[in-house]
Amino acid sequence: MRERSGTARKGRGTRKASSSAAVKAPSAARPDAGSATARKRPATAEDTALKLWVVLARAQLAVARHAEADVARHGLTLAEFAILEVLYHRGPLHLGEVQRKTLVSSGGVTYLVDRLAGKGLVERGECPHDRRARYAALTPAGERLVARIFPEHAKEIARAVGGLSKEEQQRAITLLRKLGIAAAELPLSGGTP
């Protein structure tokens, strides 16, 4: 009997030890949790830059989810909508211009324009001045679709960024443009231009 009660006590003791280890695990998983030095240390330039990157990425993702859901109601991806929108507002464009204005890769633009052409929303044509160049233009059906859905889409984006006042949005535009230009001018790590 002693062996059984001794074993039982060890078993209970083991359970208690694992329970207390589980309770301590969350602070062990976060090295700065409970650390007085981590809370008192002033933020470095790198800490601030990393925080900005995370906040930017999360904000972009949150707003993009609204934009994606809105265009998905019309059977479009966000990249397809971007192409339709730029052609709607700029008129027929060379595929290279479409690529630069929508931030879609060169091969991606060709694929997306082909898909939109298959849906009857875009037509491709040859450039009369340069036989190597191709352009894209909205079809009448594409014009009608964008004219109908763009105003709703603009309202949805305004709703998604509505956490900032109009003045705050203007300041954010100025600051983010400045950040984007400065980052674009920096050489990439590894010497890649």
How would you describe this structure to a colleague?
The structure is a single chain. The chain has helices at residues 2-29, 36-40, 45-72, 78-90, 95-102, 106-118, 140-160, 166-185; strands at residues 93-94, 122-126, 134-138. The chain is mainly alpha-helical. The protein has a domain at 68-182: Orthogonal Bundle (Arc Repressor Mutant, subunit A), CATH 1.10.10.10. Strands 1-3-2 form a 3-stranded antiparallel beta sheet. A hairpin with a 7-residue loop joins strand 2 and strand 3. The N and C termini lie far apart (77 Å). The relative contact order is 0.07.
Helix proportion range: over 70%
Overall pLDDT: 83
Low-confidence stretches: 1-31
Beta content comes to 5-15%
Q: What is the number of strand segments?
A: 3
What is the distance, rounded to the nearest whole angstrom, between the alpha carbons of the first and last residues?
77 Å
CATH superfamily of the domain at 68-182: Winged helix-like DNA-binding domain superfamily/Winged helix DNA-binding domain
Specify the biggest β-sheet.
3 strands, antiparallel
Q: What is the name of the CATH topology of the domain at 68-182?
A: Arc Repressor Mutant, subunit A
Top-tier CATH class of the domain at 68-182: Mainly Alpha
In the CATH hierarchy, what is the architecture of the domain at 68-182 at level 2? Orthogonal Bundle
Q: Any idea what the shape is?
A: globular
Label the structural class: mainly alpha
